[in-house]
């Protein structure tokens, strides 16, 4: 691990435990074992470290698998439960990384105390995923897979509220979320998704 990577890891660890505003560059430097001035060779400010952390988090959500891309000609959308499962597995692999769990906890700790973090949470954690899920339900409605009186925007909110609540619950309960708890989280989330799809699916 090079110096920049050490700064990144130490900063994230401190931010997720103590909160972004409670950690100084001097404290980060001491934990890394370097002079405070050496940080500026890699990051221009404490906020630039935070933005690097956020960039890694958003990049980890980028899924290149064509099977789980939203397009009307995607054959997997004929089976929304399987489509969801593949996406869920990709997100599971992302969340099973300790770094990403620390970032998630940092966001929850600080979103009401730091405007940059609040806006990141609003845009990246709330708005963008809801746009994706609304798009999915819209395509399913257009294909006649779900009922025509379904409201894609409301379905997206109903779906997405469950995993968000579950993640909040886990972060409130555990300092370090056990793997078996994460496994149970994904099982329950998939069960909830299946229940929601079944409630609006056109019965053949």
Radius of gyration: 20 Å
Q: How many domains make up the 3D coordinates?
A: 2
Give helix and strand order, one letter per element, not per position. Answer: HHHHHHHHH
Low-pLDDT runs of 5+ residues are none
Shape: elongated
How are the SSEs placed, and which strands pair?
Layout: H1 3-18, H2 25-32, H3 36-39, H4 46-61, H5 80-95, H6 98-110, H7 115-142, H8 152-173, H9 179-200
Helix pairs in contact: 1-2, 1-4, 1-6, 5-9, 7-8, 8-9
Structure write-up:
- The longest helix has 28 residues, at 115-142.
- This protein has helices at 3-18, 25-32, 36-39, 46-61, 80-95, 98-110, 115-142, 152-173, 179-200.
- It folds into two domains: 1-47, Homeodomain-like (Arc Repressor Mutant, subunit A), CATH 1.10.10.60; 63-200, no CATH class.
- The chain is built from nine helices and no strands.
- By secondary structure, the chain is an all-alpha fold.
- The chain is elongated, with a radius of gyration of 20 Å.
- The model has no long low-confidence stretch (mean pLDDT 84).
Short description:
71% of the residues lie in helices and 0% in strands.
Keywords:
204 residues, 9 helices
């Amino acid at each position: 691990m090079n110096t920049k990577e050490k700064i990144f890891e130490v900063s994230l660890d401190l931010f997720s435990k103590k909160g972004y505003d409670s950690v100084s560059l001097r404290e980060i430097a001491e934990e890394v074992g370097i002079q405070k001035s050496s940080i500026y060779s890699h990051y221009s400010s404490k906020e630039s470290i935070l933005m690097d952390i956020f960039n890694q988090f958003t990049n980890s959500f980028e899924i290149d698998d064509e099977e789980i891309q939203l397009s009307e000609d995607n054959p997997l959308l004929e089976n929304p439960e399987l489509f969801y499962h593949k996406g869920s597995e990709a997100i599971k692999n992302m969340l099973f990384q300790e770094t990403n769990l620390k970032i998630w906890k940092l966001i929850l700790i600080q979103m009401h105390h730091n405007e940059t973090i609040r806006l990141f949470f609003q845009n990246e954690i709330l708005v963008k995923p809801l746009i994706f899920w609304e798009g999915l339900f819209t395509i399913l409605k257009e294909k006649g897979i779900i009922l025509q009186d379904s409201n894609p925007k409301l379905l997206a909110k109903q779906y997405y509220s469950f995993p968000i609540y579950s993640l909040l619950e886990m972060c409130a309960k555990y300092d370090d979320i056990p793997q078996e708890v994460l496994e149970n989280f994904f099982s329950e989330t998939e069960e909830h998704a299946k229940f929601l799809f079944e409630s609006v699916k056109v019965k053949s």
